[in-house]
Specification:
The protein is 80% helix and 0% strand.
Length: 54
């Protein structure tokens, strides 16, 4: 399994929001989108802390 990065998370959010705007997002897709919105700031924080330690 590949690691989810902030960049990948932002891309997935963009794709899912596009589907939602067109009315093609399932309820499971909506839950996935909500989870990605929760995960994004955590991923960004982890990446910024990792950059500081490098």
């Amino acid at each position: 399994m590949k690691k989810l990065t902030a960049e990948k998370c932002r891309k997935l959010i963009e794709e899912l929001e596009s589907l939602r705007e067109r009315g093609y997002l399932s309820i499971n897709g909506e839950y996935h989108l909500q989870a990605l919105h929760i995960a994004l700031p955590i991923l960004e924080q982890q990446e910024s802390e990792g950059a500081k330690n490098d």
